Amino acid sequence: PTLSFRPKGLMCPDHKEEVTHYCKTCQRLVCQLCRVRRTHSGHKITPVLSAYQALKDKLTKSLTYILGNQDTVQTQICELEEAVRHTEVSGQQAKEEVSQLVRGLGAVLEEKRASLLQAIEECQQERLARLSAQIQEHRSLLDGSGLVGYAQEVLKETDQPCFVQAAKQLHNRIARATEALQTFRPAASSSFRHCQLDVGREMKLLTELNFLRVPEAPVIDTQRTFAYDQIFLCWRLPPHSPPAWHYTVEFRRTDVPAQPGPTRWQRREEVRGTSALLENPDTGSVYVLR
Q1: pLDDT > 60? residue 261
Q2: CA torsion angle for 26, 27, 29, 35 (degrees, to 10)?
Q3: Is the model's pLDDT at 206 over the cut of 80?
Q4: Percent of the chain's residues with pLDDT above 90
Q5: 83 part of a folded domain
Q6: Which residues form the B box-type domain (predicted)?
Q7: Given a cut of 70, is residue 154 above it in pLDDT?
Q8: What distance in Å separates the CA atoms of residue 233 and residue 278, rounded to the nearest whole number?
Q9: pLDDT for residue 256 is more than 80
Q10: Does residue 171 fall inside a structural domain?
Q11: Closest CA to 274 of 225, 239, 212, 214
Q12: Cα–Cα distance for residue pair 256/268, rounded to 1 Å
């Protein structure tokens, strides 16, 4: 706001003529030429003097009301300051709750990660053990090593009974080794495709993670609300609003002097349904409800 309210000029910007009238439709000052032009045809135009008196009366009335209700202004300031403090506290609590929940999700994911990695590790070690055993078996088939070396030594035996005694069991082992060479395949697969994760659904859920939709502010049903010796208040939710489990009804008198500090509302907590009965109101008093 500024205390310097006087315009720099009172000439019509279109015709450079002195303004003599006020167009209520366009809410601007106009000159005599403006009145006869099509621009303001059919508009409500009044002399400047009439507009001056009407606006001055309205401004005086509004200013008188504001100055006469300074206690109300101060009370509302206190209520707003209390709302600021409550907003700061509630906002911090909301941040902490979200952080705690997200940390909880992280802990669950970390636990699941450890479990999956442990399963892969066990599978990997079991396969490595089988492959290592198979390598050892094949190394024994190298010239001069293990089973082959032993067979080569047995073949040098010239004593027939001794040869038969040694070769009887050796032949079975050599036969199995021969078959293993002919039908060779690794004892375990090196692929871990069965350990791939499909996290598409989970990623979509995490991406869509958001705050709960809260119900919109209810609208008082003036057709069903009435007051006599009791106040019967009815309301409804706007279309497409999420449902509400319960409501809080607040009410206070407006015809009593304002008290210092935040406005005191009377409350009715945990109201089920879309109506409430306020019994024994003060006769002849004016109430505001929300």
Answers
A1: no
A2: 30
A3: yes
A4: 26
A5: no
A6: 7-48
A7: yes
A8: 8
A9: no
A10: yes
A11: 225
A12: 21
Question: What end-to-end distance do the CA atoms of the chain give, in Å?
Answer: 33
Token couple for 188: 């375990």
> What token pair was written down for 155?
């073949």
* Nearest-angstrom CA–CA distance, 79 and 73: 10
Position 147 scores a pLDDT of 76
Alpha-carbon distances, residue 153 vs 45, 65, 210, 226 (angstroms): 128, 122, 77, 114
CATH code, domain with 42: 3.30.160
Q: Within the chain, how many helices (H) and strands (E) appear? A: 6, 10
Which of 248, 240, 242, 254 shows the shortest CA–CA distance to 288?
254
**Which amino acid would we find at residue 161?**
P
- Domain membership of residue 121 (yes or no) is yes
Owning domain of residue 60: 21-68
Residue type, 143: D
Cα separation, 210 vs 282, in Å, equals 45
Tokens found for residue 242? 């999420």
Q: Indicate the range of 60-69, 93-102, 119-128, 208-217 predicted with least confidence.
A: 208-217
What global pTM score does this model have? 0.55
- The closest alpha carbon to 213, from 240, 187, 191, belongs to 240
Structure tokens at 40: 């303001």
Radius of gyration of the chain (CA): 46
241: CATH:
2.60.40.10
59 plus 150 within the same structural domain: no
Backbone angles phi, psi at 258, to 5 degrees: -65, 140
Given a contact cutoff of 8 angstroms between Cβ atoms, the answer to whether 19 and 12 are in contact is yes
CA dist 36 and 21 (Å) reads 12
